[in-house]
Amino acid sequence: MKEIGLRASTINTADGAEVIIPNGILTSQNIVNWTYSNDQRREMIEFSLSGEELDANVINEIINTTLENQPHVIGKKKPVVLFTKVTPEACWLKVHFWTTISKREQVKSEALLHLKDGFAAKGMVME
Question: Which CATH architecture has domain 40-126?
Answer without folding.
Answer: 2-Layer Sandwich (3.30)
